């Protein structure tokens, strides 16, 4: 039945039915209604009065405004406006949280989201891209006993994990740096008796607010303490693991960490796939080793691809230049390059802006590049590679061998090059010091989506296996099989030098198939992972001559419909995930991710660049939160979004924002050349920001996030929130500080009237 004509009547019925009988109220308020209508209205009234157990958590939509609203055992997270409405509705529903109250709040929320949205503030996200706590935790309250020098004091846990605790303390209690802790109540159970023996814990300071997915109070609460276990004990560890596993289904609280990690990785992959930047990795000698290639990077690499004698990207970023940049990491480098095609070949030139200005060749270089029509400008930012990422523990031997030489990581971002209104006379001899020498050997870029190593279909199949290596038998079990190879899980780790040859026997299959010889089959170990517990085997001379290949060919031919094929589309090598996370550890500039809904644009996420302190200070408000609105107005953002929607093929748009630091501050968007000269000649300090905005098309993006599947298993609600936020992701804004570039450009005879378009 459609109750929309009776909405006002139902609101009155629900309010009055707590004091009077519903049937009596209907007789007086709607005397002409038939029996069927009256019955359905009574049923709807009872439904709206039924208790509701759904928690309202709106931190994803209002990240900086929500606060806890506790009511009868449920803790809601609501912004002030909806909190006021919540309290008002409680008065109408007799102080009870009902379905009617819940549905009314959702309707008010839908109305709020249709109102114009501002570029709201958001917490800076430090792009470390890892869960804050690597072990599972429970939100579980149980008494603990703190053994202090002056005596024992009882406290309560808020959450429990294998290596740490969060406690609530009595008022005014101050803990020392180390304290012994025991669980008296849990120790009463026979399987947790060992938890009654005190173990030493260390008091840890609260985590900074920037590491959390949601804002935390500015000052840590004095009645809470975080403890980390420093005294190792196997019995304690096994008891805690058993206790966590028994209660994880009901009290597990690791969904929040997984949600924050997965969301951050999706933001990072969005930046890697659709941004202008190109991430490159170099070894300790400064030689180029890996090129992480995105969509725009393909066009960027084509400019430097030379069929003979080699690839010139290594010449553009020579080892001498990389080592010189590494000595001054906090200074971004502006690198200019162009190519001239002559009768005898193509000549490439590249020079840094600082070097050109020191030798007074800056104008001549720009003039020659402009005359050739191939002038390029790159923003370079270099940082050391960090081997502290938690995913290094999951690298296999091949991944470790590939990544161990890496020392430096560099962001290469194309920027609009300056122009001269009147080029200088040709004088190419002045630029001979900047002529590049080709480097032999091609560079193979690493694409963000890797194809599996095994070409044939792999099937999940578990059967006991025995590995014979140097006459030492090792027992294990197969995880998946194919005609050409096996993935084998051993009960104990093994140490081998690759490539190694081993003999594999399948005892259970030998009993079931006595006609086949499945003992001492020769296989080659092509890779080892999980610390030597997982072996990747390839059949030696696979085909008709190999007993294992012939047996698995017959097995799959007869039982393929019964075996479950192992999906390859969502798998990604561990070394590839390590490369992507390393690329996002040190961004060359802050990045804003913007969503769009019925209310307009809103800031969905802000990724920080700690090495750009001046730029970060400019984009941070008085409360320490990211504020894009201090640089870009909503009207400018809307106009750039409209321009990107036009069918002219543009994927990125650029705008220059000139910020004067005099009081009061002023913003100028793409000022005229005359105005630029006036600003540069003034005594006030000027900051010039380049904003690169691109429209995101999520149907072209593929998120290979290892935590996604785990998040789906832990919390379907968090997965739905994540999918909704990604569906609203509409634009991306990268910001660079180009003050030095603007000052150098101002010393040209006549700067460009507006930023030139980006290459490609």
Number of domains: 5
Give a quick account of the main beta sheet: strands, pairing sense, barrel closure. Answer: 7 strands, mixed
Instruction: State the end-to-end CA separation.
Output: 58 Å
Specify Rg, calculated over alpha carbons.
Answer: 32 Å
Lateral arrangement of strands in the main beta sheet? 3-27-26-31-30-28-29
Strand content: 25-35%
Average pLDDT value?
Answer: 81
What overall geometry do the principal axes of the alpha carbons give? globular
Structural class computed from helices and strand pairing: alpha+beta
Which runs of at least 5 residues are low in confidence (pLDDT < 50)? 207-221, 750-754
InterPro entries: PilZ_domain
Organism: Oceanimonas baumannii
Protein name: PilZ domain-containing protein
Pfam family, one: PilZ
List the helices and strands and how they pair.
Elements: H1 7-16, H2 22-29, H3 35-49, E1 67-71, E2 74-78, H4 80-92, H5 99-113, E3 124-125, E4 137-138, E5 143-148, E6 151-161, E7 164-168, E8 178-182, E9 199-204, E10 224-229, H6 234-251, H7 255-274, E11 278-283, E12 288-293, H8 295-303, H9 313-316, H10 319-326, E13 333-341, E14 346-352, H11 353-358, H12 362-372, E15 376-384, H13 397-403, E16 406-415, E17 446-447, E18 459-460, E19 464-469, E20 472-481, E21 485-490, E22 500-505, H14 507-512, E23 521-529, E24 534-539, H15 547-559, E25 564-565, H16 574-583, E26 591-597, E27 600-607, H17 613-618, H18 634-644, E28 652-660, E29 666-669, H19 673-681, E30 686-695, H20 707-714, H21 716-728, E31 729-737, H22 739-746
Parallel strand pairs: 3-27, 12-17
Antiparallel strand pairs: 1-2, 4-6, 5-6, 5-8, 6-7, 7-10, 8-9, 9-10, 11-12, 11-16, 13-14, 13-15, 15-16, 18-20, 18-25, 19-20, 19-22, 20-21, 21-24, 22-23, 23-24, 26-27, 26-31, 28-29, 28-30, 30-31
Helix pairs in contact: 4-5, 7-20, 7-21, 13-16, 20-21
């Amino acid at each position: 039945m459609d109750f929309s004509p009776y909405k006002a009547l139902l609101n009155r019925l629900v309010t009055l039915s707590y004091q009077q009988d519903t049937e009596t109220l209907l007789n007086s308020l709607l005397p002409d209604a038939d029996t069927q209508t009256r019955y359905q209205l009574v049923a709807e009234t009872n439904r709206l009065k039924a208790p509701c157990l759904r928690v309202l958590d709106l931190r994803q939509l209002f990240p900086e405004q929500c606060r806890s609203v506790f009511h009868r055992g449920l803790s809601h997270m609501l912004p002030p406006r909806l909190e006021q409405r919540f309290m008002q509705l409680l008065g109408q529903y007799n102080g009870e949280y009902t379905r009617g109250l819940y549905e009314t709040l959702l309707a008010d929320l839908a109305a709020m989201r249709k109102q114009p949205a501002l570029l709201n503030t958001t917490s800076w996200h430090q792009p470390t891209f890892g869960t804050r706590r690597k072990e599972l935790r429970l939100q579980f309250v149980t008494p603990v006993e703190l053994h202090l020098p002056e005596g024992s004091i009882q406290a309560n846990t808020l959450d429990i994990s294998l290596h740490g605790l969060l406690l609530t303390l009595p008022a005014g209690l101050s803990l020392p740096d180390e304290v012994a802790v025991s669980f008296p109540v849990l120790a009463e159970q026979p399987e947790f008796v060992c938890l009654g023996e005190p173990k030493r814990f260390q008091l840890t300071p609260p985590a900074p607010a920037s590491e959390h997915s949601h804002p935390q109070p500015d000052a840590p609460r004095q009645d809470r303490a975080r403890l980390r276990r420093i005294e190792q004990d196997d019995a304690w560890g096994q008891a805690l693991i058993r206790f966590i596993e028994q209660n994880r289904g009901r009290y597990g609280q690791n969904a929040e960490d997984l949600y924050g990690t997965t969301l951050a990785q999706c933001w990072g992959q969005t930046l890697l796939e659709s941004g202008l930047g190109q991430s490159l990795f170099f070894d300790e000698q400064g030689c180029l080793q890996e090129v992480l290639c995105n969509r725009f990077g393909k066009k960027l690499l084509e400019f430097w691809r030379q069929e003979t004698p080699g690839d010139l990207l290594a010449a553009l970023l020579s080892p001498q230049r990389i080592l010189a940049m590494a000595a001054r990491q906090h200074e971004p480098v502006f690198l200019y390059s162009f190519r001239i095609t002559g009768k005898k070949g193509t000549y490439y030139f590249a020079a840094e802006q600082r070097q050109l200005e020191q030798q007074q060749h800056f104008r001549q270089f720009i003039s020659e590049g402009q005359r050739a029509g191939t002038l390029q400008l790159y923003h370079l930012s270099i940082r050391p590679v960090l081997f502290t990422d938690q995913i290094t523990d999951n690298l296999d031997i091949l991944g470790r061998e590939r990544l161990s030489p890496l020392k430096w990581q560099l962001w290469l971002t194309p920027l609009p090059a300056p122009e001269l209104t009147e080029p200088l006379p040709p004088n190419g001899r002045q630029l001979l010091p900047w002529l590049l020498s080709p480097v032999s050997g091609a560079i193979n870029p690493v694409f963000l989506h890797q194809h599996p190593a095994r070409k044939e279909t792999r099937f999940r199949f578990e059967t006991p296996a025995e590995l014979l290596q140097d006459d030492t038998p090792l027992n294990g079990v197969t995880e998946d099989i194919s005609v050409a190879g096996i993935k084998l899980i051993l009960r104990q780790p093994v140490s081998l030098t690759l490539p190694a040859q081993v003999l594999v026997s399948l005892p259970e299959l030998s009993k079931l198939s006595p006609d086949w010889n499945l003992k001492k089959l020769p296989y080659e170990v092509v890779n080892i992972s999980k610390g030597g517990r997982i072996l990747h085997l390839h059949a030696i001379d696979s085909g008709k001559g190999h007993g294992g290949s012939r047996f698995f060919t017959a097995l799959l031919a007869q039982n393929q419909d019964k075996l479950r094929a192992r999906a390859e589309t969502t798998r990604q090598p561990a070394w590839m995930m390590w490369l992507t996370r390393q690329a996002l550890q040190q961004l060359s500039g802050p990045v804003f991710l913007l969503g769009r809904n019925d209310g307009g644009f809103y800031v969905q996420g802000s990724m920080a660049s700690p090495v750009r302190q001046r730029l970060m200070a400019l984009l941070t408000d008085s409360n320490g939160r990211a504020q894009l609105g201090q640089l870009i107005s909503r009207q400018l953002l809307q106009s750039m979004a409209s321009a990107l929607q036009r069918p002219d093929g543009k994927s990125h748009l650029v705008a220059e924002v000139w910020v004067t630091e005099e009081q009061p501050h002023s913003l100028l968007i793409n000022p005229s050349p005359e105005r630029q000269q006036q600003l540069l000649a003034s005594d006030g300090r000027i900051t010039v920001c380049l904003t690169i905005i691109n429209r995101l098309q999520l149907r072209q993006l593929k998120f290979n996030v290892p935590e996604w599947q785990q998040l789906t298993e832990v919390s379907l609600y968090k997965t739905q929130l994540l999918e909704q936020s990604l569906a609203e992701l509409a634009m991306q804004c990268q910001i660079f500080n180009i003050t030095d570039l603007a000052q150098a450009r101002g010393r040209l005879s006549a700067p460009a009237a507006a930023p030139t378009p980006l290459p490609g």
